[in-house]
C-alpha cells in the first residue's frame, strides 16, 4: 500500500475533492427541482389523516413532545406515535450505487450521477413541501429540513459499491409512505421482487426508474469487441459482436417486461430514463406519479 495516501496533504486533497462534489450535486438538484411548479399540496386536501398508524423507535432529532410516554413506559426505549398523515407524507429513496451504474458513453453523465440528481431533486421537492424524505443508505427514518438534504446528498456522494450490480438494501419503510428506486435493474430480480412485495404489504407505493445509457439500448457493436464489466470481474471477447445484438436486445426486453409485471402486481409504476435526455423529462412525470399516489 502506498504510504503517501496517508499523508496529511493527501488526506486534505482527497477530503476537499469529496466535499467539492457535494455542493455541485445539491445545487444541480435544487436547480432541477426549481423546474417543477409545486401545485396544491396533498395535506390541504379533504380527508382524515390523524388516525393512529404505527409506533416507531425514537431517533436523534425527534422532538421530546413527539414521544409517547405511555407506550415508552412499557419497554426499555422511547417510542414515537405516528399518525396516518405523517406516514403518508414520507418519501423513501434508493439509488443503486453498484459499479454498473458508473457506465457512461460519449461524454454523457453516468447513470449513477443522473440517478443521484433525480433522487436529490425529489428530496428537495418533498422537504420544501413540508414533508419528510429518507434514503435507504441512511439508518434514520425519513426527516424534514435542510439538514436532511445535506445528509442525503452526503450519503449519495459516499456511495460507490464494488459489486457489478446492485439490489435494494433491506429496510422497513414507513407504512403508507411513497418510495422511488433508481437503478439500471440489471441484477437478478429476486431481491427487488422481495423488496417491492414487502413494501406493498406495508401499503407503500412508488415508482421504479430504470436509468440506462442509450448505448445499452442500441448495442452498437460490430466485429471484434471486448466486453468488460465496470468492476473488471467479467471479461468477454468476441470477433462477431453483431451476432450478439439480437439475443441481447431480447433479454433486455424480457427484463423490462418482468419489471413492468412486478410493478403491476405490487401497485407501483415503472419509468425508463435515458441519460442523453434532460433530467427534467424524468423528474416531471416522476413527481406527477408520486402526487397521484397521495
Automatic annotation (TrEMBL):
Highest taxon in the source lineage: Bacteria
Stored Pfam families: DUF58
Domain DUF58: 54-257
PANTHER family linked: BLL2464 PROTEIN
UniProt-recorded name of the protein: DUF58 domain-containing protein
Amino acid at each position: 500500500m502506498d504510504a503517501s495516501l496517508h499523508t496529511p496533504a493527501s488526506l486534505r486533497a482527497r477530503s476537499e475533492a469529496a466535499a467539492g462534489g457535494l455542493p455541485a450535486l445539491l445545487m444541480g438538484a435544487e436547480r432541477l427541482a426549481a423546474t417543477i411548479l409545486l401545485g396544491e399540496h396533498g395535506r390541504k386536501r379533504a380527508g382524515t389523516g390523524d388516525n393512529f398508524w404505527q409506533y416507531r423507535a425514537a431517533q436523534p432529532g425527534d422532538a421530546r413532545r413527539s414521544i409517547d410516554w405511555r407506550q415508552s413506559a412499557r419497554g426499555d426505549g422511547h417510542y414515537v406515535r405516528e399518525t396516518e398523515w405523517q406516514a403518508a407524507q414520507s418519501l423513501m429513496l434508493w439509488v443503486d450505487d453498484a459499479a454498473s451504474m458508473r457506465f457512461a458513453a460519449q461524454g454523457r453523465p453516468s447513470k449513477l450521477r443522473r440517478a443521484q440528481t433525480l433522487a436529490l431533486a425529489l428530496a428537495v421537492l418533498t422537504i420544501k413541501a413540508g414533508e419528510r424524505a429518507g434514503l435507504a443508505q441512511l439508518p434514520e427514518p425519513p426527516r424534514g429540513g435542510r439538514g436532511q438534504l445535506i445528509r442525503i446528498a452526503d450519503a449519495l456522494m459516499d456511495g460507490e459499491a464494488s459489486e457489478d450490480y446492485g439490489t435494494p438494501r433491506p429496510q422497513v419503510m414507513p407504512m403508507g409512505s411513497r418510495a422511488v428506486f433508481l437503478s439500471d435493474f440489471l441484477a437478478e430480480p429476486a431481491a427487488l421482487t422481495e423488496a417491492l412485495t414487502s413494501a406493498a404489504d406495508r401499503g407503500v407505493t412508488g415508482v421504479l426508474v430504470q436509468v440506462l445509457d442509450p448505448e445499452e439500448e442500441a448495442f452498437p457493436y460490430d466485429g471484434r469487441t471486448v466486453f468488460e464489466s465496470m468492476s473488471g470481474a467479467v471479461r468477454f471477447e468476441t470477433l462477431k459482436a453483431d451476432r450478439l445484438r439480437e439475443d441481447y436486445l431480447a433479454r433486455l426486453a424480457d427484463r423490462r417486461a418482468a419489471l413492468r409485471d412486478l410493478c403491476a402486481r405490487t401497485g407501483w409504476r415503472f419509468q425508463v430514463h435515458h441519460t442523453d435526455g434532460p433530467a427534467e423529462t424524468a423528474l416531471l412525470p416522476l413527481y406527477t406519479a408520486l402526487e397521484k399516489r397521495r
